[in-house]
Amino acid sequence: MKIAFIAHDRKKEEMVNFVTAYEHVFHGHQLYSTGTTGLRIMEATKLSIHRYMSGPLGGDQQIGSMVATDELDLIVFLRDPLMAQPHEPDITALLRLCDVYGIPVATNIATAEILVKAIDRGDFAWRDLVHKYKPGVDE
């Protein structure tokens, strides 16, 4: 699976703790992240993560472009609902794209826990069907 991690500043430690706890689940998947979040995760784990720019500098849009081109299967985006973000339009656009393309996105730790347990059980096999029957793909 292709999984992206994004975390607002006050949620970065929570993201690092979450990914560290489930490092065994994320191992073997293709991982992506915005700048600092990815760096902090890699410093705390043995995971390799392709890092994009920081969210406010375009990283959210770069991950959004992966959603729009069907290159992501899941996003864990720990948002800080109590802090205004200068790049709020980018965040809204990313979440809208996830809805348009049917990409599961967790915006809090409770939902992230449910999704990572589903990955561990193999419940994301439906994503293979999405790709198999995508227009223009030979069977």
UniProtKB/TrEMBL annotation:
One of its GO terms (biological process) is methylglyoxal biosynthetic process. Residues 1-139 form the MGS-like domain. This is Methylglyoxal synthase. The lineage of its organism: Bacteria, Bacillati, Bacillota, Bacilli, Bacillales. Keywords: Lyase. PANTHER family: METHYLGLYOXAL SYNTHASE. One of its GO terms (molecular function) is methylglyoxal synthase activity. It catalyses: dihydroxyacetone phosphate = methylglyoxal + phosphate. It holds the Pfam family MGS. Its EC number is 4.2.3.3. It comes from Paenibacillus donghaensis. InterPro entries: Methylgl_synth, Methylglyoxal_synth_AS, MGS-like_dom, MGS-like_dom_sf. It comes from the Bacteria. Substrate binds at H8, K12, T34, G35, T36, T37, S54, G55, H87. One of its GO terms (cellular component) is cytosol. NCBIfam families: MGSA, PRK05234.1. Belongs to the methylglyoxal synthase family.
